[in-house]
Amino acid sequence: MADTVDEYLAEFDGDVRARLETMRELVRETAPDAVESMAYGMPAYKLDKKPLVYFAGFDKHVGFYATPNGHEAFAADFARYTQGKGSVRFPHTEPLPTDLVRRVVEFRVAAVHGSRPGTS
Length: 120
Fold this sequence. Notes:
5 helices; YdhG-like; Aspartate Aminotransferase, domain 1; DUF1801 domain-containing protein; 6-stranded antiparallel sheet; 6 strands; alpha+beta
């Protein structure tokens, strides 16, 4: 099992690796103060020691985890994707929804800071 996000990403190649790198870049750009680590065997991001988002690579999809409230807030956006408890699957057969991922991360940053996006 990988100890760092770099090691985790090195386990993948081709399009899957590129999609995971894009997820990493989106999170880092949108939440530059988030701390990157590994948790539950996948890349994890925390802000103020609170969970922000996680993602993981699979054969047929990228799993995205925006706990605890990101999935409820984006239920309509996530409805077209296969979902599990606290997860959404972005299939490799479709473009990665980068705008949606960015909006979810922005929402989670605001939630961790105790505000709503667009408020201070």
